[in-house]
Every structure is written in structure tokens, then in C-alpha cells.
Amino acid sequence: MLIGQQARRAARLDAVSLHSAGRKALFSGSAALAALAWANPALAQDANALAAAPSADTGEIIVTALKRAESVLKVPAAISVVGGGDLKTAGVNTVTDLQNLVPGLNIGTGGFGVNISIRGITSTDQTSKGELGIAYNVDGAFVGRGQEQGLPYFDIERVEVLRGPQGTLYGRSSTGGAINVITKKPVIGAFEGYGKFEYGNYNTFRGEAAINMPVNDRIAIRLAGNFNARDGYLKPQGFSIVDTNAVPPTNSYTFAPGSQKAKNDQSDQTGRVSIVIKPSDDVTFTGIATIGHQGGVGPGLALLDSLDAGGSRQFDILANPVPAFQDTNFQNFVGMLNVRFGGAQLDLLASHQHFKDHTQVTSTNNPLANTTGAGPSPVFPGSSAFTLADYQGVFDTTQLEARISNADPGTLDYVAGANYYYEKTNESDHNWSAPVGTPLDTMTYQNGIDPLNTTTHKSYGFFAQGTYHVTPQLGVVAGARYTHDETVRVGTFAVPFFNPALGSPFSPGSAWLDPDGQPCHYPNDCVGNPNNGNQSDSKVTWRLGLNYQITPKDLLFASVSTGFKAGGFNDFDPSTGTTAPYGPEMLTAYEVGYKGKPIQGLTLTSDFYYYDYSKQQFNSLVFFGPGGTPPGVLYTAIGRSHSYGWENEFSYQVGRDTTISGNLTLSHSKVDDLSTGRVSTNQFQYAGQPLDRNPKFTATGVINHSFELGGGARIKLRGLIKYSASYLLTDLSNVVQFRQKSYTRSDASITYAAAGDRFTVQAFVENIENKLQKTAVTSNYAGAYGGTNGNFVPSAEAIPNSLAFGVNSPRFYGIRLGAKF
Fold it and tell me: pTM of the entire structure?
């Protein structure tokens, strides 16, 4: 592609102002919050401290994060576990909400779906040709696209969050860690079910239900479903402008919000059917089918001027008469076969995912910041514009994995296996500019960029990891993995605004043609010049570690591990004038940690880490017009950085009815080398700057207390407060920084629970402060290139209401009802 599949969203994200520019962020992560529940399993479901289901025999929290079942306090790695019973209590409806529970986890949203960051490791290229930085898995199946990762949670057993490189066991796209979502499976011999309902502000209605049905003593089926409906919270406001981008700049326009709906809403419905077949005690087959739909208005960005004004104004965006919508459908299928033979365990997994997305996102900023054309022209005169991105994509993914491990603990605990991954994407990501004078006349829309692509990702790997127990207390860990990744794209790319094959690329002399050979107009595709690319990488990653079990309840561990993310290709390289490859990411992580129960009632984890990011992929736009003018291309450069941090988490059982838990993180990061900027002949050295979204200090405190009533009923109180120091967000294209001030975020709830939680009623409030925090920045800055006074910090917006940011959620409050049998 001449302009790059994220200058495909440079228009989709910059011009449209709706893509979360995936900037690097370093968050100090967190250790095993799940250990809280182990301190007192009876209170596990009350605590926001994230408990998975305990073992019936020992009360320990059992996880499968390292591809085998083991107690979370025996896992020699930084891991947090969110139990399924805690998700709704804490208002977790999608992966985005997890960042309110798990420290060190930061999640933004944009035109390509969610963008997950763990300890600052994230994805900078979220286009179809890009690779993720965090492995996101549902029931063991890797989910490779941000659109799919944002699907709603329901009927979940637990969510595991692993921090640090997981290259040995997880392979591709796990440089920064892994998130494992495990749904509830059918239980043989049990007829049970539950239902939940929520009503709240922003006209929120949510429902979830599941039923478990035994067929016989070897087969069980589970049916589950949910729906979510909520109005958006970014509200369009009317405004007037004089079109100073037109020649002559004499026309004035007024736009009213009319019936435009607020953005950042939610509207989805999902169903799931699962079956477990156990022909013998040593053989289990599990099949899972999930189908669903997402609709609504879709995502939007908050305006900097509105955020600075605060109060009710922070939710104001500018009206855009061009409609926005989201229409996605998905079907996912997973099959798992687990066979025990002798002292070994064989695990097989096969998965197919089909995801069809049609989303149109529209700008929320001032049209004066979005221009069309190249000035006076008999074909397309220049003007200010509303921008929109009409994305249509179909994703089909197939993957296979086979593992063998020891079935029972021994002198050598091992796991070895192989996996295969194939993804094919057919897409059109068409960006348009709608002139302010004719925003509803689609015949006047100008093509921004339009990539028409078929992209394939293929990956396979072989891995093995083992722990040799030198003594009952001392274990030596060693593991390695060979991975091969390939990315191939075949397609065309229509650049803004006219056909360079028929003249100057910046001359309004001719238009692109659609697939039928006619001048393309909205909503038809524009067929541009061929723009093909491919890249392949092979890499061996490894892990070495020592574990020392001080006591049966206290573990020390140390490790050195490597992470790898495949390279790719830039759609346009200024030095070559065509596509050009860039190299893979490489990370070496050093970690020392403790987890255990040093005194009665106290569960504590403490973890030190140091990251040497010898090769890190940074993304910015590079403009290749005359003198560094548009159009622009997403350009990935290789830089270097380092970071280190100290993470602490605790849970203390004060008494039978009270638990206090919390976490504290200190972190530091610095870019060691990065040349960046949108003008290829005038780059800035960014060394010495911190990584984005990397507060030096964060702390969270949670208290859970319950009162016993008659008949086994209880009143449960929960309070949470989070403090974050300030952090920076960087527009690497314009080389400017923006600061998110320090903030607090508080939640509270009170719950009545009948005996055995057969019936519950909860009143809740989240984000009591009702303040939005900036989580991502776009590249719409129109001021001085490279900031001011040499410090990259601009003094003010050049155009009012031009800058927009991704933000977290506002205050939500309401009532939740639950019943189970």
C-alpha cells in the first residue's frame, strides 16, 4: 500500500480522529491477586481481589497459565486471576474493564478494537498486517484481532493475566504477557443454573443466564447467553464555523446535534453452547460453540478542550451529521480432547473463528482541523470536512495445538508440544472526507484512503519447558521454543485524494475508479495501485529460572526469559519509495519474586523486574508529500528502551468478616534510542523520554466487610480506591506530548445475599469521581512540529476542539439482581 494500512487509519485515526494511536506504554504490572482467595476461600467471591475456583481438596486456587494445572501460589511467575464470580460484581463486561481490577494492565479502544498493554508492552501496528504484543486466548484458542478481543464476557470461570514474556509456552504475540479467558464448562451430574440482571444510568440494561443439564453419567450440556444495552456518554453538541479552508473563506455553517446519538455505547447479544463427553475417567472431550452480534453507534474520542473544562462539559463532542454505526457478527468453535495414559497427559485443541465486521466511525473534532482537496479546483475544491471510516472486514482463523505433559507431579515436571495458526482477512478500510457544505451528499465525498487487501498470517512452533526438582525445595526451570511467522498481503491502495497513475499524486486532475471501472463514490471501493508485501521471521526464545520453596506456603523465584514479536513491512519507506521490511522485536526480561503467606491471614506477593528492550517497534506517521505534507503512511521504526519496576500485592484477613487488600507499584522507563517524526528529512531524537502511560507510582486499596443476618443471609460491603501518578501520552508523528494528571478512581457497592447466594441484590457505583482520564492520543495536532521550546510540549491547541483522546468510562451506577439454583 502506498499509504500504509494505518495511514489507512491515519485517515481512519487521524483524519477520522477515532483510532487510539497505539503508543508504547509501560505499566508496572502486578503479581498474583488470586492468592487473596486462597487466604480464605469462603470470602473469595466477596473480594474484588480476584479469585478463581478453589480446589475442592485443598482450597488452593488452581490455574492453567503455564499449560498445566497447579496452585497459583506455586506458579513461578507474575500472575493475576479474576474469578468469574467477581466479574459482574466489579462491573467487568469486556476485557477493557479488567484494567480497573488488575494493576499494570492498560487497555485502550479505537477503530481496530481494543489495544492491550501489560507492563508497557503493547501493539503498535493494529492493522491486519500487524502482530499483537499480548497473547489473548479464549479457552486456549489465540484471538489475534482487537475487534474480537473486545467481545463481551459472560459465564466465565476465570481470567488469568500473565506478565512478562511468554515466548516459550505461548509463542507468537506474547512479548509482554498473556491473557487467558476460561469459560465455564458443563458439569456432569449437575442440574443447575443462574440468572443476572442489571439496570443503571445511561439507560443500561444487562442480562446473563446459564443452565447446566446432565444428559447421562458421561455427558453434560451447558447453555449460556447474555445481552448488553447502554447509551453512549460522549454527547454531540451543536456548533458554528467559518470555513477558513475554502477559497475564499467566506461561507459559515451551523450544525445542530439533532437526533445524533452519543458515542461509546454498547449493544450486543451472545449465546454459547458447550458439551462435555467423558467416555472414561481418562478421556474427556469438550466442544464449545459461540455466536453473537455487536451493534450500536460505536466508538468515539473525547475532545481535549472538553476534558480541560471538566464537569459535565468533559462529555461534549462536536456534532457530525454523517451517521456512525457498528455491525459485527461472529461465530467461534473450539474442540478440546484430553487423554491420560499412564503417567502422561495428552491435550489436543482445534479452533475455528469467523468474524465479520462492518463499522463506520465518524470524527468528533472540529472540521477546521480536517481538510479536503488541494485548494481551488474545478473537480474537488478544498474545504473543511467531517471525516468517516467505512470498514468492512471478514476474518477466518484456524489453529491447532498438541501438548504432552506429566500427569502427576514428579522429579521432572514437563510440557512439550507444537502448534499451528492460520488467519485470512479480506477487508476494505475506506476513509472519506465529507465537505462541511454538503455533509449528507455522498456524491461529494472525497476519497481519503482505501486499502483493498487479502492478508494472511501463518505461524507454527515447537516448544518444551520443564522443571527439574533438585531437592523437594529447589527447582531448576528451562524451556525453549522455535517459532516461524509469515505475513503476506495482496491488494491495492488508493491514496488521497486522486490517482497518481494519471498525473501528479497531489493534483485534482482525476479520480480513482471503483471495481466496475466507474469513478468511485461513497460507499463503493476505490481501486488503487498494487501494494503487496510479505515478511517472515524465525526465532528461538528461551526461559531459565530457579524456584526455591522456603516453606510449603512460601516461594522464591528468579528467571531470565526472552520475548519475540515478528517483524513486518512498511507500506511506504521514504528512503526507497516503496514497501520495505522492518525487523522483529526482541526483549530480555529479568525477574525476581516472592509469593506466599508469611504470617497468619496475610497473602503477599512482591516482584522486581528489569526489561532490556534491545529492539522495540515504534509507530508514527511519515508524510511523503512535498516538504513533509500529506498524504502520510504508518511507519514502524526500530528503537531501544529499558524499564524496571517493583510490584507488591497483599491481602490480609483482618477477621472472619473483613478482608483488606491492595497493591503498590513503582516503575521507571526510558527510551534509549528512537528517531521519529512525520517529516522524514527532519527527524527528532526521542531518547531520554519515558514510555507512554507509565506512571511512576500507582496504588490500589480494597476493603470487603460482611454482616451476618438470620438464616445464613449476609450484607456485604465493598470499597475500592485507586491512585495513579501522572503520565504522558505521545504523538510520535508530530513529536508532541500530552500529560494526564494524577487521579483517583473509587468504586463502592452494598449487596444483600440470601443463604448460599441463592438470591442477591446489589447497589453499586463505579468511578465515583466521574472524571475521564486520557488513555490514547491521535495525531490531529495542528501546532508547531516538534512541540515548543525543545521539550515536545505544545503550549496550546492551534485550532479549538481539534485534538481528541481515547478515555476510560465515566460514573456508572445502578442495581444488580441475581438468582441461582
Answer: 0.87
